[in-house]
Write a structure and sequence with these properties.
By secondary structure, the chain is mainly beta. The protein is built from one helix and nine strands. A five-stranded antiparallel β-sheet has the order 1-4-5-8-9, with no helix packed on it. A four-stranded antiparallel β-sheet has the order 2-3-6-7, with no helix packed on it.
């Protein structure tokens, strides 16, 4: 009986979020960078705050063992001017499962490194002149993750 009540509660929450989601709009179109993904040449406007989150799942079948990785990176940005933003990228919590060929399975969990940086939009796109939009990103990657997920260097 408890499982049925829990299922109805989950469905009710999902429906409430689904039907209220359409009421939230951005003031302008968002050009998302996406954490752990390609960066755009645009920045968010002065005084604006934006966060982006991903769910990343990977499988590697190139070796005799199967390696499965899941992570949840987050990028937080704040516009300090119309051409500059500060950003903090959390590598997120990661789970790596390695199904060994001899039956020896291993599992590692922890957090990835965090980076702090500044993004400067230096040139607008001009299609008629053939000029692309251009930005510069300065990042400081901190060795803040757990030992299994710290990047060397």
């Amino acid at each position: 009986m408890y499982a049925i009540q829990k299922m109805f509660a989950v469905i009710a929450v999902f429906l409430a979020l689904f039907f209220t989601e359409h009421r939230v709009f951005a003031a302008e179109p968002i050009d998302a960078d996406g954490p752990d993904f390609v960066n755009s040449a645009g920045v968010i406007g002065k005084g604006h705050f934006q966060y982006e989150a991903d769910f990343i799942s990977q499988q590697d079948h190139r070796t005799p063992s199967t390696v499965k990785s899941t992570s949840l990176p987050i990028l937080i940005k704040y516009g300090t001017s119309d051409t500059t933003e500060i950003r903090v990228a959390f590598g997120g919590y990661t789970i790596v499962n390695n199904d060994g060929i001899t039956g020896s399975n291993s599992r590692q969990t922890g957090t990835n490194d965090t980076s702090v940086g500044v993004k400067w939009h230096s040139q607008d796109k001009d299609a008629n002149a053939g000029k692309p939009a251009l930005c510069w990103i300065l990042l400081l990657e901190t060795p803040s993750g757990t030992n299994a997920f710290n990047k060397p260097g």
